[in-house]
Every structure is written in C-alpha cells, then in structure tokens.
Specification:
heterodimer, A: alpha+beta, T-fold, nine-stranded antiparallel beta sheet, two-stranded antiparallel ribbon, about 25% strand, globular, B: alpha+beta, five-stranded antiparallel beta sheet, about 40% helix
C-alpha cells in the first residue's frame, strides 16, 4: 500500500439522488456509490481508510505493520485491528492450503487481506450510519450492500484481462462481494508461494460471495493456484468463480450461473 | 450518458491494444458541436482520453441527422500506423451505430488487422453500452492506472 496521492479525485457527483466519490488511498482509488441522504457518513469512512493506510502500509517505515514486521514492537503494542487482520490471514492460509500467505515475498506483508477487509469494513460503516444501499470499490474489488436502485440488483462488470477497456462478463446480485485477481494492472504481483514464480494458468479469476474480506483473499489464493483453482473454488462454500485463461478461454463454477447477468 | 462515454473509451482502449499502438498515441477525443445543449458529457470524454494519451486532434464535429439521431465525429488521431477517425450515431443518447471513417491502410497487414479488429471493437462498444454496469471489478489498479480504468469513467472523474 503506497501512500502517494492521498486525497479526493474530482468532485462529488450527486446525480440521481446518489453520491459518487473517488478517494486516493492505499496506493489505489476507492470508489463510493451511496445514497445522497447518507453523504454525511462519508467523511468519517474516508478518515478511517487513511488511518488504515497509515497503520497497515508496508511502504511506511513508521507504520505498525512495518515496525511489527521488523520485530521492534509486540502485537499488543499495535492497533488492535492488526490482531484482527492477522487472525483472518491465518484463517485464509488454512482454507487455501497455504496459497494465501502473509509472507508472499518472504517478508511480513498482510496487504493481501487488508484492502478487501477495509472495503468491507467501509461498507459496514455506511450501513451502520443508515445507508441501506451502497457500493464500495477498492481498486477493483467491490462490496455491495442492498441493491443499486429499488427493485434492481447491482451489476458489476468484470474487466477483461486480455482486452483492456472491455468486459469479460457481468455479475449481478444483491449484497454481493466481487473480487478479481490477475496480472492486467500491475503485472505479475502474485507469486505461487510453493514455486516462488508467478502462476501461468490464469489471466484472471473473479470470485463472488457475500463478504469481500474472504472473497478477496481467496481470489488471490485461487490465482496463485493456477490450474488447481477450478476444483478448489468448486469445493468452496458460499463462493463462486469465473476465470479467463491466457488464451482467452473462460470457465466458471457450476453455481456461478446464479450471478451471471442475463 | 456515462455509459456512452464508457463505451467510447472502451473502444479507444481496445484500439490501442489490438493495433499495438504506441502508448503516446491514441484515438482522439470526441467533441460535439451539434445543435444541442447536451455537449457537456463529451467534455468529460475529452478529458478522459486526453489524460491517457497526447492525441493530435484535428477537430471533431457533430451534426443532427434527418432521422433524429445525432452524429458525433471523433477527432482524427494520428497513430504510429496512420490516422484513425470514428463516428458515432446516437439516438436518445444511446449509440446506435459506430462507423470507422479512417483507419490505417499503409500496408496489406494494416488492412487485414483493421478489417478484423474494427468490426470486433464496434460490436464490443455496442455490447458494453447495453451492459448497464454500476461498478467494475478487475485486477488491482494503481492510483495512476485508475485514470485509465473503466471505473474512473463510471465515477465521472476520468
């Protein structure tokens, strides 16, 4: 999580009784789509996200995560959220047979879980502030609450990993979380912890479920698994998958059809 | 209206990819000088395309056709492979037709690639428009990559 470019992008767009807002934080951009009536809750959520960035960034020498990683401080000396994140990381590592790891490049780095966790938490904060229907998109990983409009479920386009600017498919549903792992935006940033090399069997994989914290971490693990991802995602409860292969082919789990837009 | 901008930019990005345009060139922004007050959204499209590349605009135009549709002609983009110019026909702010006015034709290969790529991109533009999406999921983009992403267009801050 880089700390460059913190701040607001563009101006709030209040069209159609909705507030759209984009915020530079955690080295990417968080996009919000909330009811205009819930706009007052947004500043608090944004402050919290910048706090998460400062606390969990591996790019900041003085962050709790950096100091803990260097062994300078104990877990008890850190923000209590770090213990929460580490417990979730351990859970994901077990669930993925070690494909999800807090030591992706050898050093301590729980970033693979933090962003999805922060997005889901931001969505929960908005709901607690009274917003029933909203979406939060953290650099391409999306948590939706309620529906997009009365009677209309959310529709999330899945960016095509091989054809920038186009969609591979569209996912639809209420209260859904959608996360995609792949190589298209940052190059090979995921490494198979068992081989130390980037996986080659998938161009991208998208997971759909209810909670972004787990969906995002499991998408990272599934991408690292490569050819084994299909059987593994099929076996996961409360989670469906859609993948694009380097040759442009696609596959999906049997339950994915429930989220496929008609 | 945002969906149209999204579709147009998708075409621009697709063009750049399929024809392997160098990153410092890109299809030009669309401008409208039609007899309608609804030109502001294309200012957004302009800003978006300009942000991702330094186009070499030579003017764009828009006219009202007799069918009630509005035609928007893109600026000519001078790419490494030759000029590209695209025209859109809109009916009630929905793209109904995409025409390629100019495409690289310097070599047989240019023509072969163009004849394959443009119909595909046109089809994708019309498909993306009907997708009516609220948000985009994809491999994590950086702060810098956001400006070129589909999500930035949906956010209206591209």
């Amino acid at each position: 999580m880089a700390d460059a470019g913190a701040g607001t992008v563009g101006r709030p767009d209040l069209s159609g009784g909705r507030l759209r807002h984009a915020e530079h934080v955690m080295g990417t951009v968080f996009s919000f789509d909330v009811p205009a009536g819930s706009a007052a809750a947004l500043p608090g959520v944004l402050r919290w996200l910048h706090w998460v960035d400062a606390t969990f960034s591996t790019y900041r020498e003085d962050s709790d995560v950096s100091r803990y990683g260097r062994g300078e401080i104990e877990l008890a000396d850190c923000a209590s959220e770090l213990a929460e994140v580490l417990a979730l990381c351990a859970e994901m590592a077990v669930l993925s047979g070690g494909y999800f790891t807090i030591r992706p490049g050898g050093g301590f780095d729980p970033s693979g879980l933090v962003k999805g966790w922060a997005v889901e938490h931001a969505a929960v904060m908005l709901r607690e502030a009274g917003s029933p229907d909203h979406s939060v998109n953290g650099g391409g990983d999306v948590q939706c609450a309620g529906e997009a409009a009365p009677g209309r479920p959310w529709r999330i386009g899945i960016a095509h990993p091989l054809r920038p600017g186009t969609l591979a498919t569209v996912v639809t549903g209420r209260d859904i979380a959608v996360a995609t792992s792949g190589t298209s935006e940052r190059g090979h940033h995921i490494i198979d912890p068992h081989t130390g090399r980037p996986p080659a069997a998938l161009a991208s994989i998208t997971l759909v479920g209810a909670h972004l914290t787990t969906i995002d971490a499991l998408a990272t693990a599934a991408f690292a698994m490569g050819e084994h991802a299909r059987d593994w995602t099929e076996s996961l409860p409360a989670c469906e998958a859609f993948a694009v292969t380097p040759g442009g082919g696609t596959w999906q789990t049997t339950g994915f059809q429930a989220f496929a837009a008609g | 209206m945002r969906r149209i901008i999204f579709a147009v930019c998708g075409t621009v990005a697709g063009l750049a990819m399929l024809l392997s345009f160098k990153s410092h060139t890109s299809a030009g922004a669309l401008t409208s000088t039609a007899g309608t007050s609804n030109t502001q959204p294309f200012g957004q499209a302009s800003a978006s395309a300009a942000a991702s590349a330094s186009a070499s605009p030579s003017g764009g135009s828009g006219v009202l056709s007799t069918t009630g549709g509005r035609q928007l002609t893109g600026q000519v983009a001078n790419t490494a492979y030759g000029p590209v110019q695209i025209q859109l026909t809109l009916v009630q702010n929905k793209i109904t037709k995409v025409s390629v006015l100019q495409q690289p034709e310097n070599t047989a290969n240019d023509i072969r690639i163009g004849n394959f790529a443009f119909p595909k991109l046109i089809s994708e533009t019309l498909t993306a428009q009907s997708a009516k999406i609220d948000s985009v999921s994809g491999a994590t983009y950086t702060s810098g990559g956001y400006i070129k992403s589909l999500q930035s267009i949906l956010d209206g801050s591209g």
